[in-house]
Amino acid sequence: MPVNIAVRVFDTVVSVDLDDSLPVPVRDAITAQWAHLRVTDAAPDLRMLLTLPGTETTVEEGLQVVVSQPDSAADQLATRLTLAGLGHLAGTAFLFHAAGLALDDGRVLAFVGPSGRGKTTIASRLGTTLGYVSDETVAFRRDLSVIPYPKPLSIGSRPGSKQMHAPAALGLKPAPDELRLAALVLLDRDPTASASRVEAVPLDEALGELVPQMSSLAAMPDPLSNLANVIAETGGVRRLVYAGAENLVDLVPTILQTRLGAKPVTEPATLALPDALPRGAVGRAPFVDALAIDDKLAVLSGHRLHVLAGIGPILWNGADGVSIDEMRERVEATHGPNPNAAADSYVANAIDQLVAAGVLRIG
Asked: Are 316 and 307 in contact (CB under 8 A)?
């Protein structure tokens, strides 16, 4: 008979059947790894079956996860559970590829970065002093309330399977019940750094690095303006440059004190797409949100962020079905005529580049 465990993944309860095709030691290990997230008093939102290839067991409602071999079962299950929880939160919470650690008062530091930046190492080192929130995914709502996900830690590197470890087995400290985001910290691991340091990151640069480390941002309402407001409310984005995770807990006060003044966004972008474009006319390509940042412009197209500088913001804002000649006139009205007579086509060339990037379109 399959072994059943129901676990809480963010705010989703997933009932998992561990098929008897899996070796007993594997089923026992998975049960122990997720014991701290077991749920016994709530109906599941999703059912999942973990099984090996070639078995006849099926799941009538839910997701069947067929693992390639027993040694990778725990790793693949953790991935599927995480994706299920993220899918349930899409559009209602900001979802970061990050490690989360909490102070005793519930303030959470989210250490953001792609694979290989040391998120799990930081979680395992700092988590013995700070409360462990997650080793790879931090979720929080617009009011900054953090949804904990203290999953088993994934230790190892790709390709291949990671080894899963229960937080208690690594001596990690549970986080407080009430959690609130206090800082977004970009991780920059530099083996040559002589000492760790914390830097404030300008908003345009911060968005360019944060957005690729987020899931389902486009599903959020006014995603860029709301994200910018989150950044303003938490004192701006910090960058942590470090060589190793030793003694990083001593930098927590510095992280919290390093603040970059940021203005809240009061008026989200409301520009509409032009209707069908006349032949040769320039229009904005479909976009999700846009945000002016001083003399630059951030445009979210699907899951990709474009930060426009120079004449880019004028071209994008003016692309309401006008000709390229009219666009040139608008640019020159702001920047003056191009002093280089041989560069009369610079506006057309810039438009071509933005068309190739999927930011503008030409009828």
From this structure: no
State the total domains in the chain: 3
Whether residues 128 and 79 fall in one domain: no
Q: Which of 12, 85, 89, 22 is closest to 53 using CA atoms?
A: 22
Whether residues 188 and 233 fall in one domain: yes
Distance CA 163, CA 330 (A): 58
Give the end of a domain, one of 203, 224, 257: 257
CA dist 309 and 204 (Å) reads 10
Cα distance between residue 295 and residue 353, in whole Å: 19
Q: What is the pLDDT of residue 243?
A: 87
Residue 267's pLDDT is 61
Kindly state whether residues 21 and 45 are assigned to the same domain: yes
CA-to-CA distance for 108 and 150, rounded, in angstroms? 13
State the CB neighbour count (10 A cutoff) for residue 68: 11
Cα 108 to Cα 147: distance, rounded to the nearest angstrom: 11
Asked if the peptide bond before residue 268 counts as cis, ω within 30 degrees of 0, the response is no
Residue 341 has pLDDT above 80, yes or no: no
Q: Is 108 left (phi over 0), alpha (psi -120 to 50) or beta?
A: beta
Please check whether residues 183 and 109 belong to one and the same domain: yes
Strand order of the β-sheet with 360-362 is 320-322, 282-284, 360-362
Distance CA 338, CA 38 (A): 66
38: pLDDT strictly greater than 90: yes
Residue-wise pLDDT for 187-206, tens only, equals: 999 888 888 999 999 999 99
Q: Domain of residue 179: give its range.
A: 94-257
CA 124 to CA 101: how far, in whole Å? 10
Based on the fold, state whether residues 344 and 197 are members of the same structural domain. Answer: no
pTM: 0.91
Mean pLDDT of 7-33: 95
